[in-house]
Request: fold
Amino acid sequence: MAWPQSPAAQPASPVTLTALIADDEELPRQQLVAGLKRVWPELQLVEAANGVDAWDAFLEHEPALCFLDLRMPGMTGIEVAQRIGARAHIVFVTAFGDHALAALDAGAVDHLLKPVDEPRLRQMVSRVKARLAQPDAAPPALQGLLDRLAGQTRKPAPLESIEAGFGRDLRLVRLDDVIYFEADARYTRVVVAAGDLLLRTPLKELVAQLDPRQFWQVHRSTIVNRCHVAGAERVDDATMFVTLRTRPDKLPVSRHFQHLFDAS
Reply:
């Protein structure tokens, strides 16, 4: 009698990593995309043409690796990296002669020069692969360097008020009075004590104009004014809600932002 044969063990499929490439210049971005396809063909690539879209793409795709141009409209690569923190490996892309280059060199931060040459890219890929293979290893200490570089970049002052629609009327709303913002199709819902208004600026563009010390993004579709936060309720390891001082609403907190309430 022939015994049934056990199926042959199949080799484990390699884990597919996702990389975000953000640069507002089309040609350098496509050169980097083409180079990565040659030297790291199994890498899944996501592109963004400015800092605002880069941050939105990070929240959507959760890449393990981000190539960020230092100078982008909306949000700079430095500001995007500050928001990402240690949740992905960062490689800055910059032009030769950029005044930030010396700081990147001194800080031993991974960076590439435009136009990217293939030997340098291969070296970078080998180094990044080695670091990603050791997930428990301490990430490079970027925060201090990012804070210094951000201080060198002039940005418009954060908004203090906005014009939002209430029915047929247009009202001037002080940002201190806003309880939270929520994405609503092509608009942004503005929640205040007196009711809801609509803002034509999409949430992903609005986030770059707000003071991050006052307005915390807690979800891809929600930004809350921390002055109106009563606390945070953790349901389980993956689920958390923000509670508010003056409204019964409970706002979901995605895992990307739960660290904001670690001390709560």
Summary: The radius of gyration is 22 Å. The CA atoms of residues 105 and 111 lie 8 Å apart. The longest helix spans residues 118-132. The chain has two domains: 18-151, 161-261.
